[in-house]
Amino acid sequence: MTAFQNVADVQAFIAEEDIRIIDFKVIDMKGRWHHLSIPFERFNDSVITSGIGFDGSSYGFLTVEKSDMVFIPDLSTGFVDPFADEKTLVFIANIYRLKDGERVRFEDDPRFLAEKAENYLKAEGICDRALFGPEFEFYVLNHISYRTESHHMEVRIDSEQADWNTGNTKYHNLGAKVPPHGGYHVDLPMDSSYNFRSNTVRLLEEHGVPVKYHHSENGGPGQVEIEVEFATLKEMADRTMKLKYILKNNAHLFGLTTTFMPKPFWNEAGSGMHIHMHFFDGDKPLFFDPNGYSQLSETALYAIGGILKHAAALMPFTNPSTNSYKRLVPGYEAPVSICYGTANRSAVIRIPGYATDPHTKRFELRSPDATSNPYLAFTAILMAAIDGIENKIDPVAEGYGPFDVNLYKLPDAERGKVKGLPASLLEACEALEADKAFLLKGGVFSEIMIKNQIERLTKEHYQISALPHPEEFRLYYEL
Question: Is the Cα torsion angle 155, 333, 257, 464 positive or negative in sign?
């Protein structure tokens, strides 16, 4: 990764490295990158001063009649694309709109929301940086096909290491299959995607995404995890997009496919994006207190209180797919209870018991998944934490714990006292509609942006709920 200061630096790099194409990545509301490329000869000052025009409505921004927008590359984000045949220099871009003939930052550009949240954190005098460290769970697969028509519905997913292939005689079967729910830290040869992951991790390291470790996960048909080192909010969102890009493209080179769908398999572990976070002011960690619960400071507990109080309203940003709510069910290590505890994987917030040093003391939000737009998800989480700190939301007084027991095994009467997460995307949207004021502070989120998110996700909920499910034919066809 190369951080350039100006156009002259970029042009010198182009000449030195024989760059042939300049590519620009622009985020949409769903969290997908779009891109546009130009020959290196066209990269000049006007790209920075005037930007490049595009149709914002096709990205989910604004309306068709007001959709003319421009993007301008952030020169600090440059990296050479490892997958392009022509040597290509990539920049992540910021989105601008026209106002009174001038270009101004588009208020709902997800990257701009991340910047505004980080500035708001500093302006409120809480600290100078919040650090995020996601764990990316996903499945590595050998085949995916799907089809939905009026008369035919079908999904076929296959994984070389899946248990259902133990009896496969259509090819030279060498065994080494992983039983259901038996994939956690399995070794070679059962860990069939190991070489692919190691190769991907080296690419990530070379392109500015430091990795903590990678390993196989519980899901037998190829579930794995990559955990990355901490970074500030916008930087981590940039790294998340880069990780997805490198991972998916490298998988294709290996003849594989990857998915971050929270629940691609029935009766197997779902994939989340657990997010570790802690605050620093200068070099001073703000989440450590040797005398606090689990060595957490009052500031950390207030941040936990804010996130848990707004947990349901966060979900249209942290869990924005209908599939998200098929993961958030009891019994698969996914949290369903709005509470916190030390080393408790059944709680929405877990305090890692092994993190005892002041600079590593943190908590982990376990409910999000990687179908989210990372800029929006991380920003919403930070705003909830800030609200908790500013309003001194005590998680104990609010009834959020701590619970240092397996919540799945609590007696019904006790478990019923603990609030649960929304059970559907529609419930999550209703929660956001009722609890959005904390997101509007400091002008970070806008009313129209929240409204558009709710409308889009509500439409998706009804779209999926109207589809007959194959299992319904077994249950009801002969009635």
Answer: positive
Average pLDDT over residues 385-395: 98
Is 116 a domain residue?
Answer: no
> Are residues 60 and 150 both part of a single domain?
no
14 with 2: CB under 8 angstroms?
no
Q: Is residue 45 part of a domain?
A: yes
User: Domain check: are 230 and 309 in the same one?
Assistant: yes
Instruction: Assign 129 a pLDDT band (cuts: 50, 70, 90).
Output: very high
Q: Angle formed by the axes of helices 374-390 and 298-309, to 10°?
A: 120
Q: Tens digit of pLDDT for each residue in 313-367? A: 999 999 999 999 999 987 767 888 899 998 777 889 999 988 889 999 999 999 9
In this prediction, residue 63 carries a pLDDT of: 58
- pTM for this structure? 0.95
Q: Is the pLDDT of residue 64 over 50?
A: no
Cα of first residue to Cα of last residue in the chain, in angstroms, is 62
Burial call 332-357: b when 16+ CB within 10 Å, e when fewer: bbbbbbbbbbbebebbbbbbeeebee
Ordered alpha helix ranges (H), 322-391: 324-327, 374-390
pLDDT higher than 90, residue 117 = yes
Active site residues: 55, 135, 137, 217, 225, 274, 345, 364, 366
Domain extent for 91:
7-105
The amino acid present at 337, given as its one-letter code, is: S
The pLDDT tens digits of the residues spanning 292-307 come to 999 999 999 999 999 9
Residue 57: per-residue pLDDT: 83
Same domain? For 91 and 151 the reply is: no
Listed residues 43, 74, 105: the one ending a domain: 105
Neighbours of 432 (CB within 10 A): 24
Contact yes or no for 71/59 (Cβ under 8 A): no
CATH number at residue 100: 3.10.20.70
3-state secondary structure of 410: coil
Whether residue 114 is contained in a domain is answered as no
Helical (H) or strand (E) element with 455? helix 447-465
3-state secondary structure of 142: coil
Residue type, 355: A
Domain count, the chain: 2
Is residue 112 in some structural domain?
Answer: no
